[in-house]
Amino acid sequence: MMKNSVMMKNSVLMKNSTDLRPGARPDTGMAAPTDTAADRSSHLESDVPTTRGHTMSSTTPAGRATQGGGRHRVVVIGSGFGGLFFTQALRRADVDITLVARTSHHLFQPLLYQVATGILSQGEIAPSTREVLARQRNARVIMGDVSSIDTAARTVTSELLGREQVIPYDTLLVAAGAGQSYFGNDHFARHAPGMKNIDDALELRGRIFGAFELAEVAETEEERRRLLTFVVIGAGPTGVEMAGQIAELAQRTLKRDFRRIDPSSARIILLDGAPSVLPSFGEKLGGRARERLERMGVQVRLETMVTDIDSQSVTVRDSNGQTEVIEAVTKVWAAGVSASPLAAQLAEQTGAGLDRAGRIEVLPDLTLPGHPEIFVVGDMASLNDYPGVAQVAIQGARYAARQVKQRLAGKQSPTDPAVKPFAYKDKGSMATISRFSAVASIGRLQFSGFFAWLLWLAIHLVYIIGFKHQVTTLLRWAVSFVGRGRAERTLTEQQVFARTAIEDLGEQYRPRLPG
Prior knowledge:
- By secondary structure, the protein is α/β, with parallel strands linked by helices.
- It contains 14 helices and 23 strands.
- The strands form seven sheets. Strands 3-2-1-7-19-18 form a six-stranded mixed sheet, with helices on one face. It has a four-stranded parallel sheet with strand order 11-10-9-15.
- It is globular, with a radius of gyration of 23 Å.
- It starts with a helix and ends in a 10-residue tail after the last helix.
């Protein structure tokens, strides 16, 4: 358990995701990847990475075998929805696939907030990519952070603990996703983490539960109020879900667990510069979400901009120009995303443009100008103002896989003007507010309340990868939603302070492989 003295010095107790429009988190109205694949063997010699400086075999235009008769080499960057679905769609293709990702898992990001609030464990929403693709014999998984792409040499360079690998490709799919955006105020991240990965969620869990623990031993009422004030910045789906779950923690889960404090007295504030909650869902559903939050005791403040954040407070400015300092130790940043830096790197080499969020502007077939062998899908790609959601990534990945298979079969040239452009089919958006309450927009249909919550529950359960994860998730939901318990309430100092400690140490202290 965290010591009070440590926490008071570093009161940086708390991360995001989810608006279902551009700059938002994925939703889940789509088919899920399966664990099965073709059971045919293939040789992966041409997939083996080379170290920098070694000679690599030359490549030919996408759609043809490599020189020397080798199999077509496909490199996939990213193990999210785009990368995983693309890889699985090529399970029966005569190709050798190398999937490179900075993590060893496929993250089901729509449920990340449930890890942060103690409902689910990280393993239930982040199955091993290697395990998911274990039966796909033409796919190889490499862990590493892609640092550069050389479009002229057709190579990808990844780095893991200081060791570089150079991987040649004939076809490249880039699905590196997006990170948190603080709109030019990156220093906010130290005290108001976002929520984009497992580390973020575990840190937030430590900050949220740790705030209640510290409040129990607080020496003054002022200190106690500061610890029991939670500020969520961003009223998109992730912000709404986080605010609702923190309110349920305070009012139901922790209600009887403390002796000196009343957890239900916790103050939860939801801030956003927009004039409505869940703006992408429309005025009607957004209004219902706000009403439900306010009934739960959440203070909703709209048209309010954050101007500063420190360890003990958030400074805001309302639409009238009035400034207020809100004293709060725990802050959650749930606003804004920015594309992977690889987008800018590709734009510089190919001449493609970038939009305001840093996404690369792709051609209608999801390729880059002058490079039909490079596909970009998901949060990195900018096309027709499509939102940065999971549906777009999955549909784009499947479209790209079809193009690759048609090229390999000789049915289509990479430069064929008759290629049918990618068209996204919107399957709807959902967001939970609390247990038994959600909002859903599916085409012209709009639902709210218990029925929408049941829809949300069923869809998310179906799309969790693997039967064992589905079963354990269902059991955890029963404990948390029917009862009042949370199975994942463990917190450590390392969860809360590791990120900032590593940042303070600097690059020279980062671990590296010997030799």
